[in-house]
């Protein structure tokens, strides 16, 4: 798309400011002006629609777009797995998400294929494979399978869920390998997980000293570590080691939240995956026993969200959807809107997430100089946040100045 002007929309700019009726001028992939313009260019009439910045999902798993048990038991071909990954990437765009942070599952080739425009998808920041301790969260091999065979489940350039480390030296080797393969940040599992095979939610994983090794390696590359963590002991270990973000934080208490706030560590809660697994555990390719771990997680995470906000923790937004049913990514905003306000949910999914991803001012806001990532909604999501849950309500999606979806 050449120079263009989107006119007539009610604009919610991502800062928390009330909607305004503004015309938006776009050129060379960036927003150049807010307000009426007489300059040349295509005119896009958006009367009656609401404009937001392109949404950002800070916790996605494109590489887990196939049923998990089938995927990791060699029950699917690489072609099918690739088809599922790229279909999910396209669905993210269709739901209004122009940027995502992949927190484990894809290999660097997926990021490259999307960035080069070979397949449809959002802008992707990826940690590559998750860093896990032997026997910890992130391992889905059979119990009898030797750990050293786990890497045979990887498909180079396409998907690589996790790497296993038995000590600090092995972890250092693995994170260096992850960076070599294109990771732009690191993710460690420091507690057990809901979708776990060989661990418990109460487990802590990796020592403070081991986590600090990953922090050191990330700092050497001017980037950061985020951690999968559900319990407070794991959260404290990670914060003490110097991580910059916590994913889930399901049982976060006041003292851990205060520590996070003091160290400027962000939190990314993940509500949509809880709803997804309660609705259809089998559809995600998981055993029904997984439901036992999910039960009660919604209530604990709701409390954790309130505790984090009260402590002054920066709180982003992530869906954590897994399996083939990832079309309703925007449900995370609808769920958060019911716990906060629709505006707070939208700001979390735009400006706040941009800051967590290290992209402040470049995405997540409608302002001169920012990337022209824009979504036009059929209705007002501040009045009816359920609009976010249905991708058909995102009638026009623009990414870096290019129209990538148009249902007008």
TrEMBL record:
Tell me the domain of life: Bacteria
One Pfam family this chain carries?
Amidohydro_1
Q: Which GO terms describe its molecular function?
A: hydrolase activity, acting on carbon-nitrogen (but not peptide) bonds
| CDD domains in UniProt | Met_dep_hydrolase_A
Occurrences of domain Amidohydrolase-related (ranges): 50-404
What protein does this entry describe? Peptidase M38
The protein's organism comes out as: Streptomyces griseoviridis
Biological classification of the source: Bacteria, Bacillati, Actinomycetota, Actinomycetes, Kitasatosporales
């Amino acid at each position: 798309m050449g120079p263009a002007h989107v006119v007539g929309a009610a604009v919610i700019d991502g800062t928390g400011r009330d909607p305004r009726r503004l015309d938006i001028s776009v050129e060379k992939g960036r927003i150049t002006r807010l307000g009426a313009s007489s300059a040349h260019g295509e005119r896009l009439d958006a009367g009656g629609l609401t404009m937001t910045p392109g949404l950002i999902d800070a916790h996605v798993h494109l590489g887990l777009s196939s049923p998990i048990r089938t995927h990791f038991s060699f029950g699917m071909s690489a072609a099918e797995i690739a088809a599922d990954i790229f279909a999910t990437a396209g669905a993210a765009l269709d739901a209004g998400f122009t940027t995502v942070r992949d927190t484990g599952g894809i290999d660097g080739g997926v990021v490259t294929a999307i960035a080069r425009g070979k397949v449809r998808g959002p802008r992707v920041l990826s940690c590559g494979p998750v860093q896990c301790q032997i026997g910890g969260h992130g391992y889905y091999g059979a119990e009898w399978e030797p750990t050293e065979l786990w890497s045979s489940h990887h498909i180079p350039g396409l998907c690589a869920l996790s790497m296993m480390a038995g000590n600090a030296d092995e972890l250092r080797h693995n994170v260096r390998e992850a960076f070599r393969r294109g990771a732009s940040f690191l993710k460690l599992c420091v507690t057990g997980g809901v979708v776990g095979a060989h661990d418990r939610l109460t487990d802590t994983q990796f020592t403070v000293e081991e986590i600090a090794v990953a922090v050191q390696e990330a700092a050497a590359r001017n980037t950061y570590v985020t951690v999968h963590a559900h319990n407070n002991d794991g959260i404290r270990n990670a914060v003490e080691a110097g991580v910059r973000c916590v994913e889930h934080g399901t049982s976060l208490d006041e003292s851990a939240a205060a520590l996070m706030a003091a160290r400027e560590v962000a939190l990314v809660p993940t509500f949509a995956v809880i709803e997804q697994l309660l609705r259809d555990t089998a559809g995600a390719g998981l055993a029904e026993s997984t439901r036992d771990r999910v039960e009660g997680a919604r209530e604990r995470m709701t409390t954790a969200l309130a505790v984090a906000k009260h402590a002054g923790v920066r709180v982003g937004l992530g869906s954590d959807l897994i399996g083939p049913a990832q079309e309703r990514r925007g449900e995370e905003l609808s769920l958060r809107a019911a716990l906060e306000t629709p505006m707070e949910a939208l700001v979390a999914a735009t400006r706040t997430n941009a800051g967590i991803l290290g992209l402040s001012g470049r995405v997540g806001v409608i302002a001169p100089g920012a990337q022209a990532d824009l979504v036009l909604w059929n209705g007002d999501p501040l009045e009816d946040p359920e609009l976010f849950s249905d991708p058909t309500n995102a009638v026009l999606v623009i990414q870096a100045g290019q129209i990538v979806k148009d249902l007008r």
